[in-house]
Write a structure and sequence with these properties.
The protein has 215 residues and is α+β, with helices and mostly antiparallel strands. It has two domains: 106 residues, Trna Endonuclease, Chain: A, domain 1, CATH 3.40.1350; 67 residues, Arc Repressor Mutant, subunit A, CATH 1.10.10. The protein contains eight helices and nine strands. A six-stranded mixed sheet has the order 1-2-3-4-5-6, with helices on both faces. α5 packs across α6 and α6 packs across α7.
């Protein structure tokens, strides 16, 4: 049995569009599939590919310079998460997506072309703004991988340095001395393993804390 090719997608896609009243022709001015309807001046363009790719997206985005009605057509995707990602990406780019079941030519429109306005998530925006405001300076390099110096880590370092210089302290003392409002909670949670509770409300710096902060 031979491997499928892009041309195998054409008959099902053509039949699908013809079923909606389009006159369909292939390879028109570089476009794989073009459909026209007598009552609509705007063509429908479909680009055929055996898999989602960056080249396919670039190709489809070029077609948006011609018409708002641009679809990608790919073979049926069995993995639901993968299909959901493809649909989300197409929606963000204003493209439609058709999937073709090659064994019987069944075509399904997963999404239609439309303008996309992402829903803003206020909680995420709030976290971003709080982190920006709390972070001291700009200690990281954009695009860097690995450990990122966050505002939380900066606060932990301030607490650690205070304990290194003053010995075990109550949380309220560390808060007053460092200006870290969450000092007690931060030391109690001990996210980095730098602190240890030595008495009620009193914390000391661990050896790991000394090593990792240079205290």
């Amino acid at each position: 049995m031979s491997s499928p090719s892009e041309t195998d997608l054409y008959p099902p896609v053509k039949a699908f569009l013809e079923g909606q009243g389009y006159e369909v022709k292939s390879e028109i001015a570089g476009a794989d599939v073009v459909g026209m309807r007598a009552d609509d001046p705007d063509p429908v363009i479909v680009e055929l590919k055996l898999a989602m790719s960056l080249a396919l997206l670039h190709q489809a985005l070029e077609r948006l310079k011609i018409t708002d009605f641009v679809y990608l057509a790919i073979p049926q995707v069995s993995a639901r998460k993968t299909l959901a990602r493809h649909v989300a990406l197409c929606r963000r780019l204003g493209l439609g997506l058709l999937t073709v079941r090659l064994r019987d030519g069944f075509v399904e429109a997963q999404c239609d072309p439309s303008s996309y306005a992402p829903r803003k998530v206020k909680a995420r925006a709030g976290r971003l703004l709080r982190e920006f405001q709390r972070r001291d300076g700009d200690p990281n390099r954009g695009g860097a991988a690995g450990k990122i110096v966050t505002a939380y880590r900066q606060d932990a370092v301030r607490c650690a340095l205070h304990l290194a210089g003053h010995g075990p302290c109550r949380g309220a003392e560390v808060k007053a001395a460092t200006g870290v409002g969450r000092a007690t909670t931060l030391m109690r949670d001990n996210h980095y393993g730098w602190f240890e509770k030595v008495a009620k409300g009193t914390y000391a710096l661990t050896e790991r804390g000394r090593q990792e902060t240079g205290a």
